[in-house]
What we know:
Radius of gyration of chain B: 23 Å
CATH topology of the largest domain in chain B: Uridine Diphospho-n-acetylenolpyruvylglucosamine Reductase, domain 3
CATH architecture of the largest domain in chain B: 2-Layer Sandwich
Radius of gyration of chain A: 21 Å
Helix content of chain A: 25-40%
Structural class of chain B: alpha+beta
Number of strands of chain B: 18
Largest sheet of chain A: 5 strands, antiparallel
Number of helices of chain B: 18
Strand content of chain B: 15-25%
CATH topology of the largest domain in chain A: Uridine Diphospho-n-acetylenolpyruvylglucosamine Reductase, domain 3
Mean pLDDT of chain B: 94
Oligomer: heterodimer
Amino acid sequence: xxxxxxxxxxxxxxxxxxxxxxxxxxxxxxxxxxxxxxxxxxxxxxxxxxxxxxxxxxxxxxxxxxxxxxxxxxxxxxxxxxxxxxxxxxxxxxxxxxxxxxxxxxxxxxxxxxxxxxxxxxxxxxxxxxxxxxxxxxxxxxxxxxxxxxxxxxxxxxxxxxxxxxxxxxxxxxxxxxxxxxxxxxxxxxxxxxxxxxxxxxxxxxxxxxxxxxxxxxxxxxxxxxxxxxxxxxxxxxxxxxxxxxxxxxxxxxxxxxxxxxxxxxxxxxxxxxxxxxxxxxxxxxxxxxxxxxxxxxxxxxxxxxxxxxxxxxxxxxxxxxxxxxxxxxxxxxxxxxxxxxxxxxxxxxxxxxxxxxxxxxxxxxxxxxxxxxxxxxxxxxxxxxxxxxxxxx
Amino acid sequence: xxxxxxxxxxxxxxxxxxxxxxxxxxxxxxxxxxxxxxxxxxxxxxxxxxxxxxxxxxxxxxxxxxxxxxxxxxxxxxxxxxxxxxxxxxxxxxxxxxxxxxxxxxxxxxxxxxxxxxxxxxxxxxxxxxxxxxxxxxxxxxxxxxxxxxxxxxxxxxxxxxxxxxxxxxxxxxxxxxxxxxxxxxxxxxxxxxxxxxxxxxxxxxxxxxxxxxxxxxxxxxxxxxxxxxxxxxxxxxxxxxxxxxxxxxxxxxxxxxxxxxxxxxxxxxxxxxxxxxxxxxxxxxxxxxxxxxxxxxxxxxxxxxxxxxxxxxxxxxxxxxxxxxxxxxxxxxxxxxxxxxxxxxxxxxxxxxxxxxxxxxxxxxxxxxxxxxxxxxxxxxxxxxxxxxxxxxxxxxxxxxxxxxxxxxxxxxxxxxxxxxxxxxxxxxxxxxxxxxxxxxxxxxxxxxxxxxxxxxxxxxxxxxxxxxxxxxxxxxxxx
Lengths: 394, 481
C-alpha cells in the first residue's frame, strides 16, 4: 500500500472518499491501525486514516454525553471522563497483546467500527448500546448523521447500530457520540477457586442471576498469583454496597475457599481480563473470539481442545477467547463448535493466507446476504470501503 | 387528515380476489374483511387518524405470516404490521389498499432460560406478560412503556420502546438478543440468538425501531434480568423548573444512577393529584420522582444522599417513602398521568421529543409561551434522566380548529427540541405523526440514504410504506429504490 491520506477534518474525509469513489479506487479505512490485522486482509491501493480528526467535541457530564472526533485517542477520552468520575460503560479492551503494540493509541472511531466491549458488556451492554450518535462519510462521499447527542432517540432508521461494528465497510466514521455513566466508587471481586469450566459457568450464571448487580463474570484455567483455575465475579457500586453484596453473594454461592479481593487487586484482575491477558498465546497462534449462550461456553472449550486450542471465558461463559495453531483445521474446529452451540465467531488474528481463506465471521444465510449486499451497495455503490474486510467479494 | 399515498387502483379492483386468496392461506377466524369487524383496526393510539384497511389477517404461526407476505408480495399488496395498536405516532395506521397483519394471536411464551437469562416469546405477547411470566423466579423484562399492560413485544421491537427506567436499564434495543423475522418475500430469518454479540452487520440493531418497514417480527429473544432486592421512591418538589433542573444535574453528577428520575411540571402535578390523590404538593412548580434500588439499608443510604442533594435546592417538599405502599402511592399519580389529563380535557396529544437535559428550563419556558399563544393547555411529564419530554397538549376533538391548533403546537415543540440539539422522537416513533417533520432533523440526502436501506429489504415499498419518511411521488419513490 502506497499513499496514506490523513485528512484533518470531516470535509477532508469526504473529499478523499469522493475522489476514490470517482476513480473507483479501493480504500483501506482505519484509525491508527492498531487492529488492522482483524478479520480479512483488505486489498486497497490507498489508506484513508481518520486519525487526523482528533479531539473531544462535546462533553456534558451532567447529561452523560460525550462526543469526539473519530481519531481521538481512547486514553484521552477515558482520562477526560475519569476527571469527572465517569467512564465508558462498555469498558473497551486494549488488544495490543494480540495485535502487538504499534506505539500509537487506539481511536474512538476504531473501537466503534469494531464494536469491541470488555467484561462489563455482560451487564451494561456493548459499545453499540452506548453509541447515541454517529457522523460518517459513506462510499458515496456523502456526510450522513444518525442519532444525536441525547440519550433517547428513535427518529428514523438507526444507522448508529449499522455503522458500529461494520469495520469501515459502510462508511468512514468521523464522529462518535456516546452515552457515559458514573464510574462506580468501588470495585470488589469474588475469587472462586478450582472449578471446572462447567461448574464455573453454573456459579457465574447464579451470580449474574442474583440481585447484586454483578458486572463481570469470567473463568480462566490460570491467572498469575492463583494456583489452578479461577473464576472471578465483580461487583461495582458504592463502597458499603460492594462490601455488603460481595459477602452476601459469597454466602449464597456457597463455594468452599471463595476469597474476596481488595479494591486494587480487583481492578487489576479486570483490566487483565478486559485486555485478554489470560489467553495462552504464542507468536504463531491464531486468535478467535466466540460469542455463544453462556451455558455453551464450556462446550466450545471442550470441543476445540482436541485441535490444540485453549482459551478462557468471560461474560459468564458467553464470550470464549481461543488461541491455537493458525491452521485451516483449527478454524474448521472453531466453526463446528460454534455452529453446534449457536452463536458467532470472529477470527481476530491469523496469517493473511488463513484470514483470506476462511469465513472470518459466520456467513449470512443467502437471503440475508443478499439484503446485506443491497445495503452495502446503497452506502458504498462502488465497493471502495474496506473491500473484503468482513466477507470475500463484498 | 394526514396524506396517505394514492391507493393502488388495481389492488382495490382485485379486492375480492385478494381476500379469497388470503382466506385460502389462513384459518377461518384469522381473516377479517367485513366492514363491521374491520372497524376496530381503522386506527391505533393516535386515534385522530382513521383509515379502513382492505382486510385484516391475524396469523397464528410464523409460517402463516410468511404465506401472507409471500402472497401480498406476488400480488403487489401493501402490508401494515400491527401489534396491540397502541402506537401514539400512528405507526399502525392502515391504508385503504393494505392488508393489516396483526400479530395478537401469536401470544405464546416459547421458552424461558434462567441460567442464560433469555426468554423466547412470540411477537404478540404483551410487554407485562413477559415480566409476569418470569416474576415468580425474581426476574423481569426491563423496558416498561406506559402502555405495558397492552402493548406487545413485537411492537416494542419495531418502535424501540422505552419507559421510565431506561436511564439504568436501557431501551428495547439494549434488551434484545434475537429475532425471528419474515421478509416481504416471505422468507423466514433468524437474527441473533441467545448470544450477546453479532459478528457481522448488526441487523438486530437496524431492525429495532424500524417501524415495520423492513420486515415483520414474529418471535423475540429478550434478555431477562434478576430484579433487585427492593426499590423505593422519593418525591421532591421545587419552586421553579430551573431549580428542579439544576437538582437533576446535581443528582447525575453525584455518581448515583437512579433507576428512575421523573419530572412533572405544575399542570401535570395538578392533573395527576386530582386524579390519583397521591399527596403531590400543589404549591410546587416542579416535582421529581426519584427511585433507587437495593437492599433496605442500601436504599436508606442512597435516599439519604439524594435527600441531601435535594436539600441544597430549597425544596418546597421532600418526601421519602418508608414502605412499598408509600412508593406505590408516589408512583400512582405519575403512572395515571394520561388518564388524569384525559379527565380534565376531552382529548390530548402526547408528544415525545428528546432534549439535552441542560436545556430543560428554557424549553419548558418556551412551551409555556406557545401554550399561551395557541390558547391550549399543556402538561409536561419528562423522563428527566434521559431528556425525554412528554408534553400533553389538551384540545377538543369535536372542534376541528382546536385539533389543528394542537397539531401545529405539537410540531412547534418538536422543532424546538431539534433546535436545542435534541430529536423529534425519543420512544414513540415517527409513524405518520412526525413523518413530515423528518426534513427538519435530516438532510434530503440522509433521508434518501435511509430510504435506500428500506429498499434493500423491501424493494417494492410494500411494508408500512406511508410511515417515517415524507411521501414522495411515485417516480421519486421508484428512484429511491
